[in-house]
Amino acid sequence: MKVSADIQALVDRRKQGYSLEAPFYLSEEIFRLDMDAIFRQHWIQVAVEPDVPEPGDYVTVELGSDSILIVRDDDMQVRAFHNVCRHRGARLCNEDKGTVGNIVCPYHSWTYNLSGDLMFAEHMGEQFDRCKHSLKSVHVENLAGLIFVCLAENPPVDFAVMRAAMEPYLLPHDLPNCKIAAQIDIIEKGNWKLTMENNRECYHCVANHPELTISLYEYGFGYQRSPANAEGMDAFERTCIERARQWEEMNLPSVEIDRLSDVTGFRTQRLPLDRSGESQTLDAKVASKKLLGEFRQADLGGLSFWTQPNSWHHFMSDHIVTFSVIPLSAGETLVRTKWLVHKDAQEGVDYDVSNLTAVWNATNDQDRALVEYSQRGASSSAYEPGPYSPFTEGLVEKFSDWYVRRLASHIDSSASEPRTINIKAV
Question: For the Rieske domain, which residue ranges apply (predicted)?
Fold first, then answer.
């Protein structure tokens, strides 16, 4: 995609430590660039392994104009394909999720197995080579049960770095042996970057998230030290040190890893939870009596995992909450939230869905309003980039800096590519 001089200038003059200029949130041209430079070039978190628990189970994910089919094959491997028939391009699976024996095109019944091989295509003649018409695969990676796809021909190779760092943190929670207890999709009337920026700070949490802050320590996400809060911050730091020692003895890593500047950027940290200290619920106690993996202790804090450009996740002793952000337009964003519990947990016996989802249902609604306030504000002629707090918005700056650097890299690489000239016969 060739970018205009105006977009190039916006990228070049981005001021570190400040929010982005308004066109980054409002321009449909920049939205198209975002899809090309970010969502078609990087590893995008789109699903979880329990979305497709059995062979033939599938989910579809829309990334801009591309529909991605994620399916479990007969060997229990998770595969990803372009959801497009190799005959005349019809959409293959037209539901959000389902189960199939084979993948059958609804138009002319071309039939593919779960590995994407074309098995049946009637009336194509003896010279037709089925082997040349398999489904087009999409790069897919499974990180401890979190499913990522990449649409690029050559995906970023540093996914292996994230895997090596994160598996010791995630595997004890045993996400593959969970089930999805609830899923909520909401559409925020705001740009996807505002959704991500809002997630990357808790400056707003005390004033806006009464349900979430029941279980979160006030000082857990950055605070400016003052005489008024020094005692509380010191107590929190002592709690973190003591709990980290206990977790390490249980082979539960907790130390912060921050690689948000990598091409495949990520960050993680396990922090204590407040009050009962067990889970992100309205009473800070477990929402599911059936603990995950081999856990025998409930108060294991909250493990948070953030990825660039589109996801964040919270892992606790009893349940997991995953969030995946998908841009729809310059001014609309899909936020998909899933709550997972142990696969053997029984609804109504071990957990109640309303209790399980109460905190993040409320928080999502509150965040949606905040994102929409910001989107409307960015469209004002009075808007100009404002300064980030160095104490509470450092992760917002890391997201914005990563985003602009990835745009700049894409623009540079596109400018250096040779032009292709198409000559039409007259």
Answer: 43-149
Output the DSSP codes for 120-148.
E-TT--TT--GGGGPPPB-EEEEETTEEE
d(CA 319, CA 282): 14
Residues 6 or more apart whose Cβ sits within 8 Å of residue 98: 57, 58
Q: Is 423 a domain residue?
A: no
Residues 192 and 113 in one domain: no
The reply to whether 180 and 277 lie within a common domain is yes
What's the pLDDT tens digit per position in 134-156? 999 999 999 999 999 999 999 99
Please list, in sequence order, all residues whose beta carbon lies within 8 angstroms of the beta carbon of residue 380, skipping any fewer than 6 positions away: none
CA angle 179, 183, 184 (to 5 degrees): 170
From the first residue on, what is the mean pLDDT of each consecutive set of 10 residues in the chain (426 residues)? 88 97 98 98 98 98 98 98 98 98 98 98 96 98 98 98 98 98 98 98 96 93 90 94 97 97 98 96 98 98 98 98 98 98 98 98 98 98 98 97 98 71 36
Q: Indicate whether 294 and 390 sit together in one domain.
A: yes
Boundaries of domain holding 139? 45-155
Number of domains in the chain: 2
Do residue 231 and residue 358 come from a single domain?
yes
**95 assigned to some structural domain:** yes
* pLDDT, tens digit (0-9, with 9 covering 90-100), for 234-271: 999 999 999 999 999 999 999 999 999 999 999 999 99
Residues 365, 316 within the same domain: yes
Record the tokens describing residue 69, joined without a space: 């089919």
**Alpha-carbon gap, residue 302 to 224, rounded angstroms:** 23
Q: Give a yes or no: residue 351 inside a domain.
A: yes
Which amino acid type is present at position 38? I
Q: Which amino acid is at 216?
A: L
Q: Which helix (H) or strand (E) holds 194?
A: helix 192-199
**Residues 166 and 228 reside in one and the same domain:** yes
